[in-house]
Amino acid sequence: MNSLSQIKQAHVSQSGFALEGPARMKEFAVVGTASAGQLDVFDSDSAPEAGVYTQSGTTVTVTDSSHGLTSGDIVGIAFDAGTGGTAAPGNYEITVTSANAFTVTVLNSITITGGSNACRYVAYTPLSTTTPKRWLMTKEIGAGDTFQNVFQIPNSGFLARNNVYFSMTNLGSAEVLFE
């Protein structure tokens, strides 16, 4: 889809928002606050779940009470900064370790401690009849950056096949142009 159809715009000043139905994201604008902020974008037909995480080596352990997932499920996950760094966001196959925890293996080996490092994720069981739920992108904004930060997605942008969920942490506002 290289030709443009009608371009639409969504703008909010709250903790998050959703676009209903499939959309191709073309451009984002984010305004920060006095604290460091983050915008996470998910392709999902349900809102992201919240959890906390730690990382040891390449293993990230996510804790979320009664998550209901099964080993082999796929999560699209975004992480807030933790003590020692930030885990790499992405789409990962999980291993369930308990009713309240699962692990993913990431490429970068670091140690992130503490029990209150926030994360958000969407999950699905990979079946031929399932439209995947995915993490699409994360944009971090530094503390005190209260200017409008505009960034464009090159070429045809990126396509979300489900609804599009935007999770905002410490942001004044976010805006997306999509078709």
* Global mean pLDDT: 90
Poorly predicted runs: none
Number of domain modules: 2
How many strands in all?
A: 14
> Could you say what the CATH topology of the largest domain is called?
Jelly Rolls
Element-level helix/strand string: EEEEEEEEEEEEEE
The CATH class assignment of the largest domain is Mainly Beta
User: What's the Cα radius of gyration?
Assistant: 16 Å
Note the total helix count. Answer: 0
In short:
The protein has strands spanning 8-12, 16-19, 23-32, 37-44, 49-63, 74-79, 90-93, 95-98, 101-124, 134-141, 148-152, 158-160, 163-169, 171-178. It is mainly β and 179 residues long. It has 2 domains: 1-45 and 131-179, Nucleoplasmin core domain (Jelly Rolls); 48-127, Elongation Factor Tu (Ef-tu), domain 3.
Describe the structure.
This protein has 179 residues and is an all-beta fold. The protein has 2 domains: 1-45 and 131-179, Sandwich (Jelly Rolls); 48-127, Elongation Factor Tu (Ef-tu), domain 3. The chain is 0% helix and 62% strand. The chain contains no helices and 14 strands. The protein has strands at residues 8-12, 16-19, 23-32, 37-44, 49-63, 74-79, 90-93, 95-98, 101-124, 134-141, 148-152, 158-160, 163-169, 171-178. The strands form 3 sheets. Strands 1, 3, 11, 12 and 14 form a 5-stranded antiparallel β-sheet that branches. Strand 8 and strand 9 form a beta hairpin. It is globular and about 45 Å long. It starts with 7 loop residues before the first strand and ends with a strand. The model has no long low-confidence stretch (mean pLDDT 90).
